[in-house]
Specification:
- The chain has helices at about 15-30, 50-55, 70-90, 100-110, 130-145, 150-160, 175-180, 190-195, 210, 215-230, 245-250, 265-275, 285-290, 305-310, 320-330, 345-360, and strands at about 1-10, 30-40, 60-65, 95, 115-120, 145-150, 170, 200-205, 235, 255-260, 275-280, 295-300, 315.
- Strand 6, helix 6 and strand 7 form a beta-alpha-beta unit.
- The chain is built from 16 helices and 13 strands.
- A seven-stranded parallel beta sheet has the order 3-2-1-4-5-6-7, with helices on both faces.
- The radius of gyration is 20 Å and the shape is globular.
- Helix 1 (about 15-30) crosses helix 7 and helix 1 crosses helix 16 (about 345-360).
- The relative contact order is 0.14.
- Helix content is about 45%, strand content about 15%.
- With about 350 residues, it is an alpha/beta fold.
Length: about 350
């Protein structure tokens, strides 16, 4: 019997892992045993634990509980914990998701112990080396044996980097499997009632260091959000990262800005589904709005998910241009939108076929 170990650590990992774990359980039958490791990189209940309940994920077999810290401290803590686990019971394959510190930590440990590594969401590139996530993506892909891609541009990037074609698999986006499976639970009326919203509203989700860490950047962000809130009420589930900085910069002083704590998966996407526009710097939100057909303004100079622009509702914007783009989005016709190929709710089964075929 083969052993597949899944590594999750932060909020974006969970909706990616859920359909993969379920599909392997159905396809592998009694031939595959799975273990789920939660590194605890996100330790707030609304940032992680609630996801396991809402997504039907099994309780983690192991929770390393590493918590917050610098990139080096967090990555090192995950590496130490995973090395001990992998030495106790050697997996046949380690599966990692996305681009968080837990992802690259697991990749390094697996590579040094010569354990096969599969990367879900491989090949995404922003080509911005200042982003910690870009470093994580590059290192993880270089160390991976199986590279599972959500879009054709990711396949092309890996080919350009010299990855052997037989290691690359275009499987679609498992995060969208989860979204489509829970679509009926995304209750717009409940979201409106929970936040006392009347009329049109925007949702903002912002946490990237370039937007929230430094004083001048935070002040510029707050100014542009206030200008957006002059046009439409903005609901902002605020990530712990940068909260104090944004508050000091005056975020709470505009009556049109409604700040709330981070939300569970179902509650957040119910809020997004009813929004007239979403303002974000998150990769996953770019994907979710693409499928939900909600206009998305990404407050970044680049994106590792360009398919959400060519086949979705996403647009890159600057802080200076955000208020104008909010106005355009509010006036836009939302009757039609495209969805990228293979974002059809069947990525989990395709990933399971690859992994069970190779390691069962």
């Amino acid at each position: 019997m083969s052993l597949v170990v899944h590594i999750t650590g932060a909020r974006p990992n969970f909706p990616k892992a859920a359909p993969v774990i379920d599909a392997i359980a159905r396809l592998g039958g009694g031939e595959v045993r799975q273990r789920l490791v939660h590194t605890g990189q996100h330790y707030d209940e609304k940032m992680s634990d609630v996801f396991f309940r809402q997504l039907g994920l099994p309780e983690p077999d192991v929770n390393l509980g590493v918590g917050s810290g610098t990139h080096a401290a967090q990555t090192a803590a995950v590496m130490v914990g995973l090395e001990n686990l992998f030495l106790e019971e050697r997996p046949d394959v380690v599966v990692v998701y996305g681009d968080v510190n837990s992802t690259v930590a697991a990749a390094l440990v697996a590579a040094k112990l010569q354990i096969p590594l599969a990367h879900v969401e491989a090949g995404l590139r922003s080509f911005d080396p200042t982003m910690p996530e870009e470093v994580n993506r590059l290192v993880t892909d270089r160390l991976s044996d199986v590279l599972l891609c959500t879009s054709a541009d990711a396949v092309a990037h890996l080919g350009n980097e010299g990855v052997a074609p037989e290691r690359i698999h275009l499987v679609g986006n498992p995060m969208i499997d989860t979204l489509l499976a829970h679509l009926d639970a995304f209750d717009v009326d409940a979201a409106r009632a929970a936040h006392q919203l009347e009329g049109r509203y925007a949702v903002a989700t912002l946490h990237r260091p370039a937007n929230v860490d430094a004083g001048p950047d935070a002040q510029a962000l707050v100014a542009t959000l206030h200008a957006a809130a002059d046009q439409v009420q903005v609901v902002l589930p605020l990530h712990p990262r940068g909260r104090a900085t944004l508050e000091e910069a005056g975020l709470f002083k505009h009556p049109g800005i409604l700040v709330c704590d981070p939300l569970g998966y179902v509650e957040f996407l119910g809020l997004v589904r009813g929004a007239d526009v979403v303002i974000t710097d998150s990769g996953g939100v770019q994907e979710e709005t693409t499928v939900l057909g909600v206009p998305c303004l990404t407050l970044r100079p680049n994106t590792e998910r360009p398919v959400t622009i060519t086949h979705g509702t996403n647009r890159l914007v600057t802080r200076e241009d955000l208020p104008r783009q909010v106005g355009i989005a509010l006036a836009a016709d939302r009757s039609t939108h495209k969805v990228p190929p293979l974002w059809d709710g069947q990525a989990g089964p395709r990933i399971a076929e690859v992994l069970v075929g190779a390691y069962a």
